[in-house]
Amino acid sequence: MKLTEDRKQIFLTELERHGVVTWAARAASPGSQHGAMKTFRDERDRNPGFADAWDEVQEIARGAVERELHRRAVEGWNEPVFYQGEQVGEVRKYSDRLLELMARGLIPERYRENFKLDASVRHEDSAIDRAVRQLAAQLRGQMRRELDDEERD
Questions:
Q1: What ranges do the domains of the chain cover?
Q2: Whole-prediction pTM value?
Q3: How far is the C-alpha of 118 from the C-alpha of 124, rounded, in Å?
Q4: Which residues, at least 6 apart from 112, have a Cβ–Cβ distance to it below 8 Å?
């Protein structure tokens, strides 16, 4: 299927809508079994203007996701409360998990999971150390004897 300007525009419009490259390629390639992903990736590599447009619409899609994360984590949503089958009110709900993820992204130095650990290890005299020293002494002695034998010859 030939990559036309119309197909590129459909791809970019869909990509802006949800940010999923596979879905955008399928929407722009209805007759293709695999969505012509390679076609769009090749065009991105060949065409700097298309690559810039791709990056721009993905940034818009990321912004939409971030807005929704903020809405659910900070602004919350109303959930209906029912009693005996009838709605009697609403409760404001928030997502602590999404707020935690946002904090890690926005303030990683305070909310990241990984941390730095500095430690030092003190090495004690062990059986292995003694065995290595003994073996080294034996090898030194053997080498001296061999060198002495060579000098005599």
A1: 1-118
A2: 0.61
A3: 20
A4: 104
